[in-house]
Amino acid sequence: MKNIFRLVKGLLPLLGLLLSLSLSAQDIVVKGHVKDATGESVIGANILIKGTSIGTISDVDGNFTLKAATGNVLTVTCIGYKGQEITVTDKPLIVVTMQEDSELLDEVVVIGYGQVKKGDVTGSLLTVKPDELNKGKQLTAEDALVGKVAGVNIVPGNGAPGSGGTIRIRMGASLSADNDPLIVIDGVPVSNTSISAINPNDIASFTVLKDASATAIYGSRASNGVIIITTKKGSADGTSRPSFNYNGNMTVSNVYQYMDVLSTEEFRQAFAEHANAPETFKLGNADVDWQKEIYRVALGTDHNLSMTGALKNMPYRVSVGYTNQNGTLKNNNYERINASVGLSPKFFDKHLSVDINVKGSIENNQPVSTGVIGSAISFDPTRPVYEDYEGNVGLGYYTWMNGGKPITLAAANPVADLELADKLEKTKRSIGNIALDYKVHGLEDLRFNLNMGYDIQKNDNRENVPDLAPSMYTGNQNDGTGKRYKYHQTKRNTLLDFYANYDKELKDHHINVMGGYGWQRFWYKNNSVTTDTEGKELATPQHAEAELYLLSFYGRVNYSWKQRYMLTATLRADASSRFSPDNRWGYFPSVAAAWRVNEEAFLSNFKALSDLKLRLSYGQTGQQSIGSYYQHLPTYTASYDESRYYFGDQWYTTYRPNGYDANIKWETTETYNIGIDYGFLNNRISGTIDYYWRTTKDLLNKIFVPAGSNFTNMIETNIGNMKSKGLEIGINVIPVKNKDWEWTVSGNFTWNTSEITKLNTIDREDNYVKTGNAGGTGKYLQVHMVGETPNTFYLLQQAYDDNGKPLDGKYIAKDGSVTSSEEDANKYVTGKSSKAPYYCGLSTRLTYKNWDLGINGHGSFGAYVYNYVKASDSLDGLYGGTGVSSNILRSTLETGFTQDRIYTDYFLEKGDFFRIDNITLGHTFDKLWNEKTSLRLSFTVQNVCTLTGYSGLDPEIYSGIDKNIYQRPRMFMLGVNLNF
């Protein structure tokens, strides 16, 4: 540390000298000293002649020298202190005393059902405000959080534009139940399936609640953490004219790598050597790279316009947005239209505050089947893309034929699948609320808040494939009959929250008491029908309708003394209609304490310490989101038309009972958390450290039950316990900050581990739950097992020869012998899971005057990925018994596997990676035609590179099973941001 201060002491005067080189001759040389209220020197304070770019910084002793003229005003600023203005006189020495800026502690952060000062926070939470200068391409809201928060692992969606990512806070606390965090948008808890309807440009901040103290106020839905999204609001200045912001960009995307398959000539040679094809079978004469046939260079555009202002006492903000992004797979497109209105009027001498938010979006998604990726990898490169057949079979696209008839077991032409299938997923969504906050006249410490909100979503999906399309011979009716599929779903989420809040300051004491009631209803209805091109039904129409109710009572008490000692206690009681009356209510308490150690007298001389807070918390949260809405009730399924019973001269619909558990109840998670918030050198270095451990009991799990004990062989019930723990470290550093330069660095690191401790009534060594289906019946590659991490791979141990080459179809049995059996009895627990125990994020931004350069990256370590693309490839795939030839991977020639070996651990690989997400270079032009106008131009490269040892295309796969993955493209973006 002493060496660092010596280096700083030597560099700061030099930097101050360099900053003063541009000074013109002035009247006097001003010498000064900057100190704080206790007399300690302030290092690195910025001293600037007001109205100019002339300035310097204070050295390690707080001293500075600057040429100035008598009467000049010096502005003195430093992080953690209030700014000062000093007028230059003829005095030989200027002494500047800086006062600590309590704004950091007084900053208000959003928590559940209210707000608190940042200094009073006792739980583990973090507020993230999007960095407008260093955010890269953000198509969906979760993109803004990738790599930004310790303990939060976000696996972005695949290469399809608009695809939703997977969000996990502290790995999730459940197994079969929902592991998504609760998303709350302006006070409205919404569906966790996707937040793509929210325009990222409308988001003001994310507040991530991680420990039980912070999340317990949401009780039944908070076991997996909470993310509170607050959108931008209007300006409170009613005299100013409206201000406008336009934010737009244009993008070009491309696929920068392909699966390493054999070239046409290599394929011909491999076919001649390894294919067991009859002599009468002939390869084609074409030379086609099928992967390049399905991909394209994709263009996209994004436009957003907002207006912010106030009409008298009513601040407002209105915004509209339009996004159109092509996917790199042909015919894949995502289009979104957004609009939002926010009004914040105040009435009755500002005692009644009204907050109105309405957001609407229309999403048009033209998806494509990811199966075409696998088809393109394996399709015979000697076959042409286009071919004409008698009767217009295939509609001009190559189709596998035998004796003049299409082969129904062959792979369909991937180009035809992209071009001929007309798919559209249209989503209309509106989220809104009105919140009334009344500060009681005469008793202003007491407030009443009423929040009424809704989330309505309508989905209309269609898929039209014409008659004679190649895929209609390999699917649907397998005879060329076309398909018309329609699906409609309506979902409604309505809520009402009413709470009272009493907030009182008594000298050094601050107390805040809140209590309330909540009601929420979820309802959905869907139906689907599949017909041929003439409207004849090809399958029995499907329909479903269900509703779920949640009732809640909740309360919280916050107490602090001099913002030094803080205590928080919460209690929430939740009722879910998923459970029977005997098990309907769950109770979720929490308590937390915090101690601002740096306020104590014994640290008063430690001036390098800006902030030090110790936090300790305990709490319980619940989980009820599993399966259908009617877990505890006996329900019945009506028979299909072909299953009806004929009696007399009439057909009767029969009903068969479904499995259920009348005693199903709440899953409960207990969490302990120890945390430290720290800051050094006027918070030039700051961050958090958290350690937690938790146990989940009565896991809601899907298990097999003995035959005859229920109406099905598998039910959802409370079986199992799990424990987990983790360490989270976050740090923010400002190495350089002066009048021209600013360099910021933010990083975070997370270690998590989970272990299943109970899984059934009686746990045996061979007791486990299969999971991780690779596609197809019974193709499970992972298990949940006692003593193991969830999603641990359960595979065959590959046998090798003396040279280390894998033996085809040979495995090590449990007794150590070599066997060819692929039975479960020979599989073993690998101890390797798709859950990443380590992950990190790194962001940095460097600004010089009006230039800025930003870089973001994130990584994951310790997870494993099963390369199913390689495992399902074999030499026998060169020619199948159906009379079809297929290409293979180059790696298949190296292994020599004659059949697909989809259970061997040979294809289990480390999924470690670090990805540079984006690099952005921008320049801002200030004061274009008046003081309030500015223009920023930027250039961004997205998905710059991935550092990994994984042999597949991309190791960042949440399931850990790599199959037909739509790879994320590299994107180049030109951006414009105009304020006027």
Automatic annotation (TrEMBL):
InterPro entries: Beta-barrel_TonB (IPR000531), Beta-barrel_TonB_sf (IPR036942), CarboxyPept-like_regulatory (IPR008969), Plug_dom (IPR012910), Plug_dom_sf (IPR037066), TonB-dep_OMP_SusC/RagA (IPR023996), TonB-dep_OMP_SusC/RagA_CS (IPR023997), TonB-dep_rcpt-like (IPR039426)
SUPFAM superfamilies with a match to the protein in the record: Carboxypeptidase regulatory domain-like, Porins
Location in the cell: Cell outer membrane
UniProt GO cellular component terms: cell outer membrane
Keywords: Cell outer membrane, Membrane, Receptor, Signal, TonB box, Transmembrane, Transmembrane beta strand, Transport
Region (Disordered): 465-484
Name of the protein in its database record: TonB-dependent receptor
Species this chain originates from: Bacteroides cellulosilyticus
